[in-house]
Amino acid sequence: MTRVLVVEDDPQLVRALIINLQARQYGVDAAPDGATALRLAAARQPDVVLLDLGLPDMDGVEVIEALRGWTRVPIMVLSARQASEEKVAALDAGADDYITKPFSMDELLARLRAAVRRTEDIALAPETTLVETDAFTIDLLAKTAVRDGHDVRLTPTEWHLLEILVTNPGRLITQKHLLQEVWGVTQGNKTNYLRVYMAQLRRKLETDPAHPRYLITEPGMGYRFEG
Ligand code: CA
């Protein structure tokens, strides 16, 4: 059974989540505050955490940081906060995904399944080096990319960027993280680098670069590879 830890102080939302998750055979624990969440996460070892940012005792970002000290469990943030800086702060602290309230239960459940699937994929296939889509195939070990039967030449920078995205399928990777990893810059004002290189990657790999299917922009936040 997949275990979900719901960290939320709104009792109505907690009730709705418990009903919907249990109806789909998830095991559910609920914590109304950050301290309870950290205790339950250690005691129950959930497979995924749904986390509200506005908690009565601590900020959700602190909960993420505390969890990331010892676990890679997928963390999906549920928050009414709209500002992209807040989302980016949660993602940079180690959250895997972010859903803005109000959300549809169907969307939440779909993203939850995706988050759980990602960890299962990693657990089942530690040796996987091939990333295949309908448009292109990436061999991470051989460092080759093939599209329509032809090798695609990528520069080392393009490759580095692509590698980070495709090894985190479905996960939103922040601009700051990519800039740090690929260019070693910490200031966030170099986002034009990212725009330029992402456009190049799309030209080389996407069937319709103007309407990318695989290399997705999350405006103001970062990028996501949809495998
Ligand atoms: Ca709240």
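^ calcium ion complex. The chain has a mean pLDDT of 90. Residues 9-10, 52, 54-55 surround calcium ion (CB under 6 Å).
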